[in-house]
Write a structure and sequence with these properties.
The chain is mainly α. The protein contains 19 helices and 2 strands. A two-stranded antiparallel ribbon has the order 1-2. The longest helix is centred in the middle third of the chain and has 32 residues. It is elongated.
Amino acid sequence: MNISDNIRRLRRERALTQEALAEAMGVSCAAVSKWEKGQCAPDLSTLTSLADYFEVSVDALLDHRLEGDSLERQLKAAEAAADRLDAAQASAQCQRLLRFYPNEAEVAQRCAEVYYQLFVQTGEKSWMEDCIAQTNRLFLLKKGEPEPERLRRLRSLANQYELLDQWDKAKEFFEQANVNGMEDGNLARCLLGQGRAEEAVSMVSDAILEDILHLSVHVNTLAETWREMGKPETACLALEWLNAALEGVDYAPALRMIYYVQLSAMRDRCGDREKALAEFAKAEALVDAAEQVQQIRSKAPFLQSKKPWKLVMTTEKRKEFLETCRAALSGENPPKRSMTFALTKNLNKEE
């Protein structure tokens, strides 16, 4: 039994001093100190009072645990009850589990999922409120967890508040999880829920255009991967698709220039010299166009970004890049991925 640790932990979770707990239990402060040091244990009546005070079972206070397979059976019983729409049974099973295992993260997680399922099935908001309570509790039970897990939990909590139309709370947690603008689309949805439609249009437009930039980097990486695997024809298909996709975005000429150069190199690798030169000519035609765009825009009228950007790749740098690639085009080596990747990643940056 680990009652000393449990008493100390439960007291600290409630921000109680030893003096305050001693007063509540009608014992001396020295007695509480001895409990927490493991020098003695509360008598049976005091143990019961402690369990009631901390709202846990005596078994939980004593750290008595059922065998793991028994706990798993109980969790599955709660989940099965939710599956068959027996909300009363599922809820009763979860309440029992949470009372007996108040500090088990797995119990809190699985019960949160049961409550979420009950909300989806019934639309009853109280189930989502119970789900949110357990999700919040997981932040305490998993304190110090890896950052990706914490961010995932923040997003889950934000989505749960969103389902209750609590847009202020949803926005608060999406903002906490918003690393490098990854939650801008979700934040735009919160703005819309708050009746701030114009702000939402601008934010989600920015998010979409950012995603297009990220997508272009990923597709280019995929093309390079196919080239490394000895399949330049497949790499050409990826780059053709990418250039077609970027044609509708006004801030993309410099990106398209880079990818046309990549495609030219791939064509040359495939032995199609004529097409290689044609693709390179398309890249040359975009040298000046790439310098003209000072703001993210799109030819799609439904995107209305207001984000000011300035192109980092100067005209001289672009010409130098093309000259290097022109020399490489007739040689054995296509443009190095490290060079084109760096140019792509740093092409657009907020001023």
